[in-house]
Amino acid sequence: AEMAVHIALLCLVTAVDAKRVVVVGGGWGGLSAAHALSKQPGVQVTVVDAAPRVGGLVSDNFLTPGGRRAEAGQHGFWDEYLNIFGLLDELGITDDALTGYAEQGQYSPAGLQAVWPVYRDQGRLPTGLAQALYTRFLKLGPQHLATAAGLLAAFAEFDDSEEARLQYDQVSFRDLCKKLGVSKRLYDEAFEPMILTGLFAPGEQCSAAAALGMAYFFVLKHQTSFDVRWCRGNVGDKIFAPWCAAMRLAGVEFVSSTRAVGFDADPATGAVTAVRCRGADTGGGADFSLLADDVVLALGAPALAAITRGSPTLSQHAEFRQFCDLRGTGVLATRLFLDRRVQAPYSANACWGFDAGVGMTVFDISTLHAPALDGEPGSVFEVDYYHAASLLSLPDADIVAKAKTDLDAMLGTTAAQARVIDAAVVRLPTAVNWYYPGSYRKLPATRSSSISNVFFAGDLVRSRHGSWSQEKAFVTGVEAANAVLGRPMTDGVVPLEQDEPHVRAGRAAARAARAALGGGDAARGPSLADFLWR
Omega before 501 cis (within 30°)? Predict the structure, then answer.
C-alpha cells in the first residue's frame, strides 16, 4: 500500500513546469542517464527497473542456500574507463570500491598458459609492441605469435568510423583471422579465449567489427589499456548503492520490482506520453502509468526486443521491429564457498579448453574482496561461463560439481582437497548482448528516428566514443541525457585519448592507399574487408 501511494505521488505531484523523464532499465546506461539528467534543474527523473535492486546484469539480488549474497560475476574496470573513474572520484569511493593492479593468469586444462603483467609497471613502448613483448606466453612460440601480423592491416583500416564498422560487420572474426593468415593454434589459444570472455560468443559467431573495436579498446589503445582494477565487493554494494543514494538526494525516483509493459502515445504526433508499468509491489501486480515528456530505453538486446514485441506503439515502426532480430547469449555464474583456504597464484584468470565454444573466468574472491570475506572458513571463488547455453539446463548440484572440477584442474591438489560448503548458481540465459555478423546496422542510435521523444542508452547503442562494455554503457547514458536536453552529444563525456603516432600513421597510410585505388576518393576505394569475400 505504501508503494502504491508513492507511485501515485510520482504520477500526480510534479512541478508544473518540470520535464518528466522516465528511464527504463537500471544498469550502467540507465543510471548514467539518470545521473546526468538529475544535474539539470527542472528535470524530474524516474528510473523503472524489474529487479528488486537496480543494477542490471551486475545486480546482487542472488542468495546462496546458506543465505550469502552473490552477484552475477566479478566486474573489472580497465584503464580506459575514464568516465566511470570520474564518477567514482565524484562519489569519493574510488579506493574503497576498487582493488589495485595485479598480474592476471590464463589457464587451460593443461595448466598455466600465459601471464598478463601490470603493463604500467613495464618500460614504455609503442602500443602493440609492448603487449607482444611483455605478455608472457608460456606455450605459444614466436612462430605462432608472428602470424598475428596480418591483423595489423585490419586494425590500420578499422578506424572506428561508421563506414569501417559496416564493412567489417559483414564478416566473422574467425573468418577474418583465417583469411589474414593467423595460425590455428594462435587463434585457438589466444584470440578465441579473448572473444569468448570479451564478447561472450565464439569468434565464428561474432562480428569482426565488434571484435576489432573491443580488442582495440581493451588491449591495444595504449600499453596500459589491459591494466584492470576489480571491484572490492559486490558492485551493487560498493558502487550502485552510494551512486543511487546520491541520485535520490538529487531528486531521482527509483521504482524497482517493476516492468515497463507498454507505452501511450499522442495520436497526433506519435510521441510517447506515458509508460505503462506492472509491478509486484503495487497492490498485487496492479498496472499504473508514469507520465513522460521523454523516455530513455536503457535495455539489453533481449529486453529491447521483448518490449518492442509487446508494444503496438513501438512495433508499428520499422526501426523498432528490427530490434527484434537482436539477441543475447547465456551466462552461467557460480560462486563457491570452500571449507579451507586455497592459494591461487593469480586473483583473476581467463580460461580456455574446458568446454568447446564456452568461455570461462575464475576469480579468487577472497583476495579481491578482502577483508570482507575474512570471516569465512575457507576461500571463495567465482567460476563463470559464457556462451553457456549448453550448461544452463544442468541441475544446480551438477553445475557446482563441474565448477569445482574445473577449479581443481586449474589449481591442483590443494583445491581438490577442499570441499564446497555453500554455492550460488546464477543462470542468465540471454544476459549479454550478442554482436553477431550483420548486427551492427540493427543497433539503436542515441535518438529514435521514428518517435521524437524516445532515446536509447546502454552498450548496445551505436556511439562514436570508441569505448566498450560498462564504460560504453555509461557514456551512452550521458549521450542520451544530452540528446534529451538538446545539448551537444559530447557534453560532459571524457573522450578517449588520441591514437598513438604510429597508429595514426598506419591509418593515414590505409586511407591514402584506398584513395589512390579509388581515383582520389577513399570512400570509393576497395577495403580490405571487400577482399575477404573473394
Answer: no
